[in-house]
Specification:
The structure is a homodimer. With about 100 residues, chain A is α+β, with helices and mostly antiparallel strands. Chain A contains two helices and six strands. In chain A, strand 2 and strand 3 form a beta hairpin. Chain A is globular, with a radius of gyration of 14 Å. Strand 5 of chain A pairs antiparallel with strand 4 of chain B, so a sheet runs across the interface.
């Protein structure tokens, strides 16, 4: 199953240490495509595992994690304006189940 | 059609002015749910209009906008950890087509 994970992690409270840890967890489960956006291709067990790790890491009062279920089909269109990946693709190829479209249609 | 829009807008180059303008554009087309994440419910004409405005506003070399097509059905599950909305819902209710789930299943 394909998912999109986005987060807002407060960096005031602990000078960004929690942000780094959350980012590291998310990168171990999927592909980072923007600073706080990850494309994931996980089975239910792995997704539950990820949720538990994030649940233990974030501060629920000031942090926010959203996980959108995108669907099962393996190819998914994402329309991109500007730079394709803000961050270096950690494992180019393996997660390339999102086909990038850049035309305006 | 439901969409998810996420962006990374570089703030070094013009002290965040472009970021504010991009955020304002996106807020006029949908619901901001995290600092750089918006849930949109738009017909094709409005989506094209939004893309053109963003295309004119961003710096394609340093900014990144990604738009994910989520689907047509009106109710969509988004799993949320921590704070539901990082930012004040601009128009609570009107865009509430995403039903928030907080259990770990």
């Amino acid at each position: 199953m394909l998912y999109l994970l986005t987060y807002d992690i407060d960096t005031e409270s602990d000078k960004g240490r929690r942000l780094q840890k959350v980012a590291k967890i998310c990168e171990s489960y999927g592909q980072r495509v923007q600073n706080s956006v990850f494309e994931l291709n996980l089975d239910p067990t792995k997704m539950t595992e990820l949720k538990i790790k994030l649940d233990e890491m974030i501060d629920p009062d000031i942090d926010s994690v959203r996980i959108y279920k995108l669907g099962k089909y393996m190819k998914y269109d994402v329309y991109v304006l500007g730079k394709k990946e803000t961050v270096e693709l950690s494992e180019p190829g393996e997660y390339e189940f999102f086909s990038v479209k850049t035309d305006l249609s």
